[in-house]
Amino acid sequence: MINVLLFAQLRDESGKESISIEGNGWSVDELKRKLKADYQLGSLETAMTAVNEEFADDDTILSDGDTVAFIPPVSGG
């Protein structure tokens, strides 16, 4: 299982803080496509991705037990 953490508007869009998904051997891109299809996460494309607390790109391959965090850009004043 892959543990997915969602922050800010991604959490609001999905109604969940975290999601567990069978994704062993998937790339981050494949995971994003699955999440967009299942949870209508429109802002996922602009989010930064971290795998096991290290920034990752869409080609990163995931393994069972990985934690993937999607962190959308924030603005402030």
Structure description:
By secondary structure, the protein is an alpha+beta fold. It has one domain (2-71): Ubiquitin-like (UB roll) (Roll). 25% of the residues lie in helices and 26% in strands. It contains 2 helices and 5 strands. A 5-stranded mixed beta sheet has the order 2-1-5-3-4. A hairpin with a 2-residue loop joins strand 3 (48-51) and strand 4 (54-55). The model has no long low-confidence stretch (mean pLDDT 93). Heterotetramer of 2 MoaD subunits and 2 MoaE subunits. Forms a stable heterotetrameric complex of 2 MoaD and 2 MoeB during adenylation of MoaD by MoeB. During catalysis MoaD shuttles between the two heterotetrameric complexes. Involved in sulfur transfer in the conversion of molybdopterin precursor Z to molybdopterin. It comes from Peribacillus simplex.
Q: What is the approximate shape?
A: globular
* Cα-based radius of gyration, to the nearest Å: 12 Å
Total number of domains: 1
Strand content: 25-35%
Record the strand order, biggest sheet. Answer: 2-1-5-3-4
- At the first level of CATH, what is the class? Alpha Beta
Order of helices and strands: EHEHEEE
CATH topology: Ubiquitin-like (UB roll)
- Which structural class fits the helix and strand makeup? alpha+beta
Q: Which superfamily, in CATH terms, is the homologous superfamily?
A: Beta-grasp domain
Helix content: 10-25%
What value does the average pLDDT take? 93
Low-pLDDT stretches are: none
The end-to-end distance, rounded to whole angstroms, is 38 Å
Report on the biggest sheet.
5 strands, mixed
Indicate the multimeric state.
Answer: single chain
Number of strands: 5
Annotated CATH architecture: Roll
Function: Involved in sulfur transfer in the conversion of molybdopterin precursor Z to molybdopterin.
Pathway: Cofactor biosynthesis; molybdopterin biosynthesis
Subunit structure: Heterotetramer of 2 MoaD subunits and 2 MoaE subunits. Forms a stable heterotetrameric complex of 2 MoaD and 2 MoeB during adenylation of MoaD by MoeB. During catalysis MoaD shuttles between the two heterotetrameric complexes.
Organism: Peribacillus simplex
